[in-house]
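Course assignment 3, question 2. Fill in each field.
Student: A.L.
Task: Predict the tertiary structure for the chain below.
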Amino acid sequence: MDVRRWRRALPPVFAIAGVLLIWQASCAAFGIPAWLLPDPWSIALYMAEEAELLFGHVAFTLGLALRGMLLGVAAGVICAVLFHLLPAVRAAFSPLLVASQNIPLIALGPLLMIWFGVGILPKLILLVLVCFFPVAWSMLAGLGQSEPQLREYLAMIGASRVQAFFRLELPASLPYFFAGLKLTATYSFLTAMVAEWLGSGRGIGYFLVLQYKGFKTTGVFASIFCIVACSLALYGLAVLAESRVLGRLRMGGNRAKGGGRA
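Answer field:
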């Protein structure tokens, strides 16, 4: 067990616990009514009582978010590689991609429903449009960050463009890829929740709207807690994948250097 990781985790845990304690004490001290601001303990009791219902809605949204994120990441990687290998394509289409990120979701969502109906397809399209951009732009920046000396060395030994890409440029872009992936992981669940507002009978976004329209403040806060927890969980998975993949690359690089010295 890594003691340093525990030490890094303790400050945010204490900070969150402190905020919850102050929140609980303030609600009790000032007699704040539950319809205005429920205390954390009441929210926790509500979540325990409605655990099965909340789990069903969260599972639906999480499945939608994961599918959209996987498709968005794949589209982002393909886009980054094409833009890197074909500068003319990058010059032609990059302004359009940047412009696509400035279209409000509240305007784009209804249009997708008009064009593709109210099923799963418009929600996935919305997720892909939101999730692919951080990966594409971050990885594209990373593909251009390989060391010029190594690039010249590969050219001197007769490496082809494809070989230089897979041996040098692609590994150099991985830290940038994971930076974009962490942003995408955060956006995916929130975007899936927004997509459910456009038309759905399940999901935590749908449940949140029901609680809001019914003036059930405790249910609204329970939904928010679920959304935050799932977004953090997806972010944590992206961080874990980053540490595993980059850790293995560093180990491989160190072994190669050790073999070269021997």
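Instructor remarks: The chain has a mean pLDDT of 85. The chain is about 85% helix and 0% strand.
Grade: pending
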